């Protein structure tokens, strides 16, 4: 009887992990900010990877279903955190790039003003 429960539990847990990953992938295309999309994609990828690794680890100790469930939950949490941090990094990089472009434009304007003043002095 025990041998019949393990494959069913394994397939349910793996199915749950895959369903979570597919749901996250589907929702990532909805009307969300880029930061939310990165976080949700991290959750989906983490859950799928965690479920797979958890099932392997669980199979070693004799309970692949529980391993997959724990792996999916842990992977989702870590993946979500990683996606959030990645999103924040991208926001900072975009902000710094915009500031750099603004500073370059100001510098170019100041250089043009300096050149005009030099031209006026030479007259």
TrEMBL record:
<feature type="domain" description="YMGG-like Gly-zipper">
    <location>
        <begin position="42"/>
        <end position="84"/>
    </location>
</feature>
<protein>
    <recommendedName>
        <fullName>YMGG-like Gly-zipper domain-containing protein</fullName>
    </recommendedName>
</protein>
<dbReference type="Pfam" id="PF13441">
    <property type="entry name" value="Gly-zipper_YMGG"/>
</dbReference>
<dbReference type="InterPro" id="IPR027367">
    <property type="entry name" value="Gly-zipper_YMGG"/>
</dbReference>
